[in-house]
């Protein structure tokens, strides 16, 4: 697909559905498309690969624009799909669970280079909602030299949300942000990143700067209590401990 514009579509379901295929998109624009049911609830996505069999599909997207889109999520990353994304712009999109919904158990990957993500909103994980990955596979998610600006999550993760334990078998993160720039991203918790735990969270090449800004949040791991302390504790990452805890 090359030099194509797809705009002003209201659709019940998925716009582009591919099965066991290698796809290349260059200079493609998706604009003003809405993926909702008749009650205006978000249900669909732009691109879906079901990843049913063991054949690996490759998706190359370059020099393309995604703007003013509404749906449940933008691009699904399921089993046996490798995404190579270069120089795309994603602006003014509203997804329930992210531009990229990542949920696979076998050989998949996402590489994003030199791209811009601006003024997008979601309930959680505005750009990346990482539901699951499979350890010990070539399944890294790598983002290089990209800009994230003015993205907002109503709940967790203004840029990325990792709600579950990823069962990582070593200390190497499966998600990397290298030489990326973050400007004015916000969320209820985790303006840039909210993760199940520190080991499940992304690697950022500028992690020290982001931690100082309070933009990286994870769940608590454990708390040791003295004998005269409170015995029952309920706390979420980012909240303040009660005075009765010692």
TrEMBL record:
Keywords: Cell outer membrane, Membrane, Secreted, Signal
Location of the protein in the cell: Cell envelope; Cell outer membrane; Secreted
SUPFAM superfamilies reported for this sequence: Pectin lyase-like
InterPro entries per record: Pectin_lyase_fold/virulence, POMP_repeat
GO cellular component terms listed in the entry, alphabetical order: extracellular region
Record PANTHER family: G PROTEIN-COUPLED RECEPTOR-RELATED, OUTER MEMBRANE PROTEIN PMPC-RELATED
Protein name: Right handed beta helix domain-containing protein
Source organism: Piromyces finnis
Lineage: Eukaryota, Fungi, Fungi incertae sedis, Chytridiomycota, Chytridiomycota incertae sedis
């Amino acid at each position: 697909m090359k030099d194509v514009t797809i705009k002003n579509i209201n659709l019940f379901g998925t716009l582009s559905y591919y099965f066991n295929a290698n796809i290349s998109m260059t200079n493609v624009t998706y604009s003003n498309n809405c993926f909702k049911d008749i009650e205006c609830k978000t249900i669909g996505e732009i691109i879906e690969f079901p990843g049913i069999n063991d054949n690996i599909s490759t998706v190359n997207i370059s020099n393309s624009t995604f703007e003013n889109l509404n749906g449940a999520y933008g691009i699904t990353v399921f089993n046996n799909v490798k995404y190579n994304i270069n120089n795309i712009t994603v602006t003014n999109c509203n997804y329930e669970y992210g531009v990229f919904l990542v949920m696979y158990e076998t050989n998949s990957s996402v590489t994003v280079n030199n791209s811009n993500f601006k003024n997008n909103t979601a309930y959680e994980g505005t750009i990346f909602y990482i539901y699951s990955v499979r350890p010990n596979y070539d399944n890294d998610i790598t983002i290089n030299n990209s800009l994230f600006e003015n993205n907002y999550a109503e709940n967790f993760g203004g840029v990325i949300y990792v709600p579950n334990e990823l069962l990582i078998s070593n200390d190497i993160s499966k998600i990397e942000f290298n030489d990326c720039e973050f400007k004015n991203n916000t969320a209820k918790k985790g303006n840039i990143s909210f993760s199940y735990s520190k080991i499940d969270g992304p690697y950022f090449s500028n992690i020290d700067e982001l931690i100082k800004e309070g933009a990286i949040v994870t769940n608590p791991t454990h708390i040791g209590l003295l004998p005269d302390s409170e015995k029952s504790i309920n706390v979420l990452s980012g909240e303040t401990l009660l005075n009765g805890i010692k």
